[in-house]
Amino acid sequence: MITALLELKNISKSYDNKPLLKDISFTVKAGETVCLLGVSGSGKSTLLRIIAGLESPDEGMILFNGRDLAGTPSHARDFGMVFQDYGLFPHLNIFDNIAFGLRMRKMPSGEIKQRVATLLKQISMSGFENRKVNDLSGGEQQRVALARALAPQPRLLMFDEPLGALDRTLKEGLLNELRAVLHKTKIPAIYVTHDQEEAFAVADRILLLHNGRIVRHGTPEEIWSAPGSAWAARFLGAGNIVDGMVVFANKVSTEFGVFDLNCKHKHRKGEKISLLLKQVSAGGREIKLKVKDVLFTREQFQVHARGGLVVHMKERPKVGAIVRVRVQIECLA
C-alpha cells in the first residue's frame, strides 16, 4: 500500500478579510504527480507558496511523512521549485546554474560534476555546460531550471505555471519530457496550471480549484468523463451544457427536447438543472440542430448551432441546414 508523503489538512487563507482558500485537504503519494488546475485567482499559486513555507495558512496543517511542517522554514523543507520565469542566474553558465544548490550543500566537486553531467543528459542538453543562460531558447532555459531543481534530489517538486511563457510546439515537447523525467526519478510533484492540456498530459491526479475550494478530484480520465458540475464542464470544454427543467421524476425538458435522466441525484418537479451533452458516434440520443456557422479545425469541421451548441463533423454542412447528431447525456445538478 502506497502511503501519502505530503498531506494537507483543512488549509484556509484569507487576504483583506476575503477568503482565498477554503478548507483545502489532499494528499500526494510517493512518485505521484498531482495537478492543481483552475483559473487565475483561484488560489493555486498561494497554496503552492504555503506548501513551500513562503506563506503561512490561517488554519490547517501540512504534514510530510507524518511530521507537521509548521515550524520548518522554507529552506529546510527540502522541496524543489520551478517557476514560469525560469529563475536562472544570468551571470552563471549552465553548469554553475545546475550546480548551485549542490555547492550550497558542500558536495564534493567530483560528485557535483558527475551529477550535473547526468542531469544534462537526462534533459537532452549534454555539451551545454559552458553556454550562457541568455544564449538559450525559452524551452532550453526551462529544461535547465528543471535540472537545477532536480540536482539536490528534493523530497518534493513544485511547478508554478512552468510552461506558461512557451509557445504550443515547445510546450507539447517539454510536457512529454517532463512526464518522462518525473516517472524516472519517482519524485512526488505538485504541478500548478490553468491549462487543461498541460494538466491532462502530466498529471496522475487532478484537483480542480474554483472559488478557493476543490470542487472535483480524480484521474484525468475520471475528471474528463464525469466533470460533476456545470462550472467544471465549461472550464474543461467537456461538451455542451444546456439548461432544463425537471417535468417528471426522471425527465427534463430543454429547448432541444425532453431527455430521460439517469443519475443518482434526487430531483423534484419544477427544479432547474444543467445537462452535459457529449457528442458520440453511436448510442445515446439523436437531436436535430440548425447550422449557424462552420469552422475548419484541423481534421474536422466545428459546427455552431442554435442555443450555443457546438458539434464536430467530418463533412462540411451548409449554413442553415438541419443536421442530426447523437449525444450522451449527463446530469450536472
Feature tags:
333 residues; alpha+beta; Rossmann fold; 2 domains; eight-stranded antiparallel sheet; six-stranded mixed sheet; 8 helices; globular
Fold and architecture overview:
By secondary structure, the protein is an alpha+beta fold. 26% of the residues lie in helices and 37% in strands. It has 2 domains: 4-230, P-loop containing nucleotide triphosphate hydrolases (Rossmann fold, 3-Layer(aba) Sandwich); 239-331, no CATH class. It contains 8 helices and 18 strands. Strand 15 (285-297) and strand 16 form a beta hairpin. The longest helix has 18 residues, at 168-185. The protein is globular and about 75 Å long. The chain starts with a strand and ends with a strand. The relative contact order is 0.12.
Topology:
Layout (H helix, E strand, L loop, with lengths): L3 E12 L2 E12 L3 E5 L6 H9 L6 E6 L2 E2 L10 E5 L10 H11 L4 H14 L15 H13 L5 E5 L7 H18 L3 E5 L2 H7 L2 E6 L2 E6 L1 H6 L4 H7 L3 E9 L2 E4 L2 E4 L11 E9 L4 E13 L2 E6 L4 E4 L8 E10 L2
Largest sheet: 8 strands, antiparallel
Relative strand content? 35-45%
Q: Quickly count the domains.
A: 2
| CATH architectural grouping of the largest domain | 3-Layer(aba) Sandwich
- In CATH's first tier, which class of the largest domain applies? Alpha Beta
The CATH topology of the largest domain turns out to be Rossmann fold
- CATH homologous superfamily descriptor of the largest domain: P-loop containing nucleotide triphosphate hydrolases
The backbone outline, from C-alpha atoms, is globular
Order of helices and strands: EEEHEEEHHHEHEHEEHHEEEEEEEE
Instruction: Write out the strand line-up for the largest beta sheet, numbering strands in chain order.
Output: 13-12-11-14-18-15-16-17
Summarize model confidence as the mean pLDDT: 91
User: What's the total number of strands?
Assistant: 18
Distance between the termini: 35 Å
Classification by helices and strands: alpha+beta
What share of residues is helical?
25-40%
Instruction: List the total number of helices.
Output: 8
Radius of gyration: 24 Å
Q: Which residue ranges are poorly predicted, with pLDDT under 50 across at least 5 consecutive positions?
A: none
